[in-house]
Amino acid sequence: MKSTNLDKIVTVVTYNDVSAEMKSILKDNKGKSGVYIWTNKVNGKKYVGSSVNLGRRLSTYFSHIYISSNKLTISKALLKSRFILRNLCKYKHNAAFHTKCCYAMMSIGVLGFVVWSQWLAFLAGDSWDINFAICWDSLVLIGTFERENFISYAQSAGNLSLLCCLILLFKSYLTIKEYIVYSDSSTNLDEKDKKSSSETICETSFNSEAFRKISGIDPEKISNDWLAWFIGFSEGDGAILAGKDGRLRFVLTQKETAILNHIHETLGIGRVRTYGPFSRYLVDDKKGILILTHLFNGNLVLNKRKIQLKRWLDAQNIVEITTNNLLPSLANAWLSGIIDAEGCFNVTLFKREAMALGYQVKLRFMIDQKDSLDTLLIIKNLWNMLLTNRKLKNRDTSSMHRVEINSFIKIPPVVEYLNKFRLKTKKEESFNKWVTVYGLVKNKAHLTEEGLNEIRKISKEINLITSVTNKTGDKLSSNTKI
Question: Which pLDDT score is estimated for 85?
């Protein structure tokens, strides 16, 4: 079947974190009829359904008894996600934690609310189920023709006459081979059609066109890989601030001054200031803010950063780009930037009598992130990592999670990625030493006194570098004076 670009789908409202927005989902859609779409943010799969009572229908998906007792595709997907999380997660018996993580992997969008469904049902007869959903800037027709579901798109032209409805229905029938969306209510699609439609993935990438136009910087000076790295680094360690006084600021805080100077020299905007043991890269002038706005707009991955950027966009009367739904990927340098900001490489030697010299070498790679569980779940899936929940100090109510690799056999894919998209902070040194230890262990050097002493020495060097790259403290608030 021909693959269809799912960018065409326009939602009236989207709930990006089902786990966190469960109450709002049920309250907002109580008693409303419409068409909804579930999206698995890890693998991009989409599932479309409709109901005369969206609130009631969606609430059933939050019941383990319900999704366990039917054969609907979305129910199978939710159960599969829970099963995978249970096997990969450190807390294998914490059902509540698995459920929360499962729904954090999903988003729900409402394609539109049904209009005239009773009238159309009367005209069409009991054997058809035809619903028209009016979206913001397009008309989406979800219907059933001989029990096969289809979608077609046409520009909205205000109120529809019966003739317009029939034309759209016929048009949808003609285009059914071009676009089939597998719906919960479908029962007769063959397995090939189900796979082709439900596994269509919307592929997006970073777009630097607006940034280059406003800044005048061409790819020969700053590559797209560097920009993707910078966006990831900024999302991990940066602060996109909008003060009550209307002042817009971008701040990066680091103990490592060299990386801030590198960013300053590369972008040619902002300034670097040093405050004792740490430094800050600050952009607060109108031109600099405008350049960063066009770089970040449509290119951010973390939802919390998108919320911060929205304040910038509103203050500058710039339209938000929402069509580029970016996810962490091994095909660009964004993840390298996140690792430079939030990652850590660790080598530990601990006593174990079963080993030849009484010590076992353990290599770990970790990424911590606050209030971004959905993104961490995707990163976890890329490298088959473990997920844990981290406790925060000082009564911090934020949600901190960690994904990590501590298995020797899972290291090669990480090495392959970071050899392609190199780190730019001192963590590059940690990574290189970490890879050296990996090579020593692979060649069984840790089973000799000389090899074990070399690993112990490198471990201390990595710890020393980590003390320089550790966080300097909590992120700045919008009212912090600089």
Answer: 52
In this prediction the pTM is 0.61
Residue 111 has pLDDT above 90, yes or no: no
Domain assignment present for residue 439? The answer is: yes
User: What would the pLDDT profile of 289-304 be if each residue is shown by its tens digit?
Assistant: 999 999 999 999 999 9
Asked if residue 56 has pLDDT above 70, the reply is yes
What does the DSSP 8-state code read for residue 183?
Answer: B
Backbone angles phi, psi at 469, to 5 degrees: -95, 0
Q: Which residues contact 301 (CB under 8 A, 6 or more apart)?
A: 231, 232, 235, 326, 327, 328, 334, 375
Residue 323 lies in a domain: no
Cα angle 88-376-257, degrees, rounded to a multiple of 5: 130
115, β-bridge pairs: 132
Last residue of a domain, one of 141, 163, 198: 198
Alpha-carbon 446 to chain mean position: 38
Domain count for the chain, please give it.
Answer: 3
Q: In whole angstroms, give the CA distance from residue 218 to residue 270.
A: 19
Shared domain check, 215 and 185: no
Cα 427 from chain centre: 23
pLDDT at 394: 63
Domain encompassing residue 410: 334-469
Q: Are residues 273 and 370 in the same domain?
A: no
What CA–CA distance (Å, rounded) separates 405 from 366? 7
pLDDT given for residue 149 in this prediction: 35
pLDDT in tens, 137-157: 333 333 333 333 333 333 332
Instruction: Name the one residue in this structure whose structure tokens are 């450190």.
Output: 90
Residue 426's domain is classified under what CATH number?
3.10.28.10
Residues 348 and 459 in one domain: yes
Indicate the residue type of 28: D
